[in-house]
Design brief:
The protein has helices at residues 15-23, 69-83, 99-109, 133-136, 154-163, 189-197, 243-258, 274-285, 303-317, 338-351, 357-367, 408-421, and strands at residues 4-8, 41-47, 50-56, 86-92, 114-120, 142-145, 177-182, 215-221, 224-230, 261-267, 290-295, 326-328, 374-376, 379-381, 383-390, 395-400, 430-435. It is α/β, with parallel strands linked by helices and 438 residues long. It folds into three domains: 4-163, P-loop containing nucleotide triphosphate hydrolases (Rossmann fold, 3-Layer(aba) Sandwich); 173-351, P-loop containing nucleotide triphosphate hydrolases (Rossmann fold), CATH 3.40.50.300; 357-435, GMP Synthetase, Chain A, domain 3, CATH 3.30.300. It has a six-stranded mixed β-sheet with strand order 2-3-1-4-5-6, with helices on both faces. Strands 8-9-7-10-11-12 form a six-stranded mixed β-sheet, sandwiched between helices. Strand 13 and strand 14 form a beta hairpin. The longest helix is centred in the middle third of the chain and has 16 residues, at 243-258.
């Protein structure tokens, strides 16, 4: 079982700041707005040669009415606690012990796990070991004072943590297929991931914008490692209502930058919007393979007719990614969900395909024997040879015998030639033309 350290506490006590400190990078969104973190956020940490998973959770809420965000967050916290090896119960040293802290302590005891009571925001080193007597009343044996923001006492906390954890090999994220899940709010991104992994790992709600952080999920299927990045629903910046939403936009686009594969989730019960074309355009600009996953197919009245109409609309509004494969699914009924991993694998295989230089040149010499890129001083510019320079994206460098300013349609012709011959049909490729001196 994976060793995990779960951070829990009421809203705004510094859980995300501590999470970022423990994993050594800014991953969870940190603001003074209560309720910024909602899903479970997972990160890998290392201390003195030992590796473990750190889990950031939302602030425990008092509002637990049915279908409320508070209820959904609390459910996620309880799931994290059930998986925990160690619980870091975070309280605010400046505010002191509050009634909600006492209620959370009662919840924690039911799980019978190792607990470290961390009194956060003790920013004065001279007061490092001064703890308000009220906190002792909670009855926890391991009590530490820390300042997550200024890294005071965090090293001592890490030393304590590794004493209780078995050694664990680090997860090599570089070996996983990294998949960014993007789309408008409320199209079913989290529902699709939950359907794939078979677990309600992410909060599902009809309230648009429920996911605000990017949520990383490591998933192994048929001995293949997948790394899903569930992003917040992206709106135009002018329509973002608060600071966390603005940060979510930036983080979601960064997720596209870091991904191997991008899945754009669409809702077939609604028209395709400009923002969805903008998202696809951003992924295309970054030369990322794009899969179009069309969710909520269970809502279609006339399946064949309505699907054809939607495909037509999609080809018109997303014509610049006409090569992108698409799949109709329903996260609600689980229809076609199993084929999403096949879609990802096929895209990844194309994105990482390599063609030998000898094979490329044999083909090019045959196909481009009489082809010219243009003219230099009335002399034809010919292609001497071609080689594949890299993958992710597949990049091909054509070397010419003379310098020439190549027209875009010439580059597109070479791109399509390579794409069709070597079955790069579903992924973008990059073509570069260079002058090679004799």
């Amino acid at each position: 079982m994976t060793s995990s350290v779960v951070i829990i506490g009421r809203p705004n006590v510094g859980k995300s700041t501590l999470f970022n400190r423990l994993i050594g990078r800014r991953k969870s969104i940190v603001t003074s707005i209560a309720g910024t973190t909602r899903d479970r956020i997972y990160g890998e940490a290392e201390w003195r040669g030992k590796y473990f998973t750190v889990v950031d959770t939302g602030g425990w809420m008092l509002d637990t009415s049915a279908d409320s965000i508070g209820s959904l967050i609390n459910t996620q916290i309880e799931k994290a606690l059930s998986e925990a090896s160690i619980i870091l119960f975070l309280c605010d040293g400046k505010q002191g012990l509050l009634p909600l802290d006492i209620e959370i302590a009662k919840k924690i005891r039911k799980f019978n796990k190792t607990v470290f009571l961390c009194i956060n925001k003790v920013d004065n080193k001279d007061k490092k070991y001064q703890i308000e007597p009220d906190f002792y009343e909670l009855g926890f044996e391991n009590i530490l004072t820390i300042s997550a923001e200024h890294s005071i006492g965090v090293d001592d906390l890490l030393d304590k943590i590794i004493q209780y954890l078995p050694e664990k090999n680090p997860i090599d994220i570089n070996e996983a297929i990294k998949v960014a899940i993007i789309g408008k709010p409320n199209v079913g991104k989290s529902s699709i991931i939950n359907a794939i992994i078979g677990e309600e790992r992410l909060i599902i709600s009809e309230i648009p914008g429920t996911t605000r952080d990017t949520v990383d999920i490591n998933f192994v299927y048929n001995d293949k490692n997948y790394f899903f990045i569930d992003t917040a629903g992206i709106k135009k910046k002018s329509k973002a209502h608060d600071l966390p939403e603005l940060i979510s936009i930036i983080k979601a686009k960064k997720s596209i930058d870091n991904a191997d594969i991008v899945l754009l989730i669409l809702d077939c019960s609604r028209e395709i919007q400009h923002i969805e074309a903008e998202l696809a355009g951003y992924a295309y600009k970054k030369i990322k393979p794009i899969g179009l996953v069309i969710n909520k197919s269970d809502l279609l009245q006339n399946k064949i007719k309505d699907q054809k109409a939607y495909i037509k609309e999609m080809r018109e509004k997303l014509d610049f990614v006409s090569f992108a494969p698409f799949l109709f699914v329903s996260a609600k009924t689980n229809s076609n969900i199993k084929y999403i991993l096949n879609l990802i694998e096929n895209l990844y295989n194309s994105y990482t395909k390599r063609i030998s230089t000898s094979e490329l040149n044999e083909f090019i010499n045959k196909e481009l024997k009489d082809y010219t890129l243009g003219y230099f001083k009335k002399l034809p510019v010919k292609i001497k040879y071609v080689t594949q320079a890299s993958i992710k994206p597949p990049t091909f460098v054509f070397f010419s015998n003379r310098k020439v300013k190549t027209e875009p349609n010439k580059v597109k012709y070479l791109e399509n030639l390579i794409r069709k011959r070597y079955h790069f049909i579903t992924v973008p490729i990059k073509v570069i033309i260079k002058f090679k001196k004799k």
